[in-house]
Amino acid sequence: MDDVLEQLQQIFRDILDQPDLVLTRQSNAHNVEDWDSLAHINLVSAIEKRYKIRFALGELQDLKDVGDMIDLIHVKLAAK
Amino acid sequence: MNLEEYSAEEFLRKMRGLRRKYAAVAGLQSVRIAVLGGTTTNELVDFLEVFLLSTGFQPTFFQSEYGRFYEDAVVDSGELVAFAPNIVYLHTCHLNVRSLPAPGASEAEFQRCVDAEFGRYEQIWKSIHDRLPAQIIQNNFELPPYSFLGNLDSVSSGGGSRFFLTLNARFAQAAAANPRVLLQDLHGLSARIGMKEWFDWDRYFSYKILNSVEGSLAMASSLASLVRAIYGKSRKVLVLDLDNTLWGGVIGDDGIDKIQIGRETPLAEAYTAFQEYCLSLWRRGVLLAVCSKNNEEIAKKGFDHPDSILKLEHFSSFKANWEPKHENILKIAQELNLGPDSFVFVDDNPAERAIVEAQISGIAVPNVGNEVSRFAGIIEQGRYFEPVSMTEEDLARAALYEANAVRASTESQFSNYGEYLDFLEMTAEIDDFKPIYIERIAQLTNKTNQFNLTTRRYSLAEMEAVLHSANHVGLYAKLTDRFGDNGLISVVLGRREDEVLHLDLWLMSCRVLKRDVEIAMLDVLAERARSLGVSTILGYYLPTAKNMMVADHYQKLGFELVSSSAEVSTWKLDLATHKPLNQHIKILEYSHG
Question: What is the ipTM of this complex?
Fold first, then answer.
């Protein structure tokens, strides 16, 4: 399992208060329970703080699932 | 663990779990809060909910449609009124201002802008006031993110900074005059966090949330403390450990001479600063208590240290013993007749913090760490003692403090010291011991160390015996002056043997040093002694480590030295030649004869 996926799974479990949540690269706001717009803001903020990165405006709109987000995090981390 | 101690990331990650945990607690107090916002308030409301749940509230929220704070309050208030809030929170920011002065605005235009904007808010508050029996919380404004005119921005009539500072001053005046409006000080909050951290423009452009997560958390915490204050749930008592909390070192091991307090070392400075912080809380009405694992007598000595800012009189309860701290704290709660949920406990020892937090439900135990220089900031962050206004009691204490300060500051305005003493308009009640004062008199013999000629301690029973003894002269003095009542501050006890009166005790509170109280006391004592057929008064000075200040007490009062040794010096006053010396104190005697 990708380190980032594993870490994201923990963040999602915490924030959504779902200790058994299994996150995959295919997870998205439609197939993960309670991933609503407010939870989304919390998730993005927590991920930014966890990795000490900032998503640029517009970057997040193009992401269709967790896999895209993981790839973007890898790009951001590599550019640090 | 207090919510304020979580980092933003920790808070976000734990938030929903905490909400579930807190909401399951029984007996939560319901509160209905309407949030009328000028920006998106959902995140702030989520945060606030967790903060309120954590302190025993079950909030229900109403939020205005985005940016419709004015309309919901003034024009179209049906839904708001139907919600029947207990609290209406108006959350607005610089972006919601309509009448900002243009860069070239004249003074008159500037004033018109301030009036117009202030008028809009006045209208909102009045409309809510007229329609709802709700408490209004209005935030003031942070400074604008950019100062287009540089330094001139806070000077020029076209300056945004000056505009918001002026508007904030108007808000403050309005809130001070209207108890229905409480001000949330976002100006102060944003400054403490720092403007760079406060705004988050990406979040604003993406979600219309103006602030960083850190900013939103600070706002939620400050709002929760206001809500607690509105419901009288602010905390009232600060319970303090002693060793390595109020002074550096262990007084039982190091002794009073070695503890770190004062100005001599950086560490001593830091403990002094923390004591000053505690004293500031006391002055505004927070009660202080000691809970320390110590020998009581030794522990109390720490406050005799000349550099100790805190004195024993500042503590409403003092528990220094070897019992577990949580048991002592429950005893303090009983003594003060307050619930331990109104207590904050500060101790440098994490083990003590842990047991107190675990054993006493509702007590706040901030994780202050063990560096004294951080204590005040961490306590402050918890917002435990938030007042909504100063009660009369708080103010009475503040007034007394101010009187002391005025007293100190007026001293230099007089050409000689006698003039100052006259200006004080002192009146002393000097009289025989009375039953109602006996407890205080016995207490003074046990706690006065400096102005105390013999340092003899008396029990209550021993002092009561004096009341009925024909061979004793016991006098007390109470002193009032133009600034207030100093209370019972001096005691003299004489024992008659034929024509000689032996002074077994003479003590005075250091609060009234250099006021000529001792001179007035001697005048009354001499008169009383004469009426009993006494011709000679013998005074004794028994030196201790602490009473050097009275080594020449009897000499100053005109006594002659009879004999002197390391243990005691004996002084004699011949009443045949003694003349009254008091000039500056009006003496009242009630029960003479």
Answer: 0.94
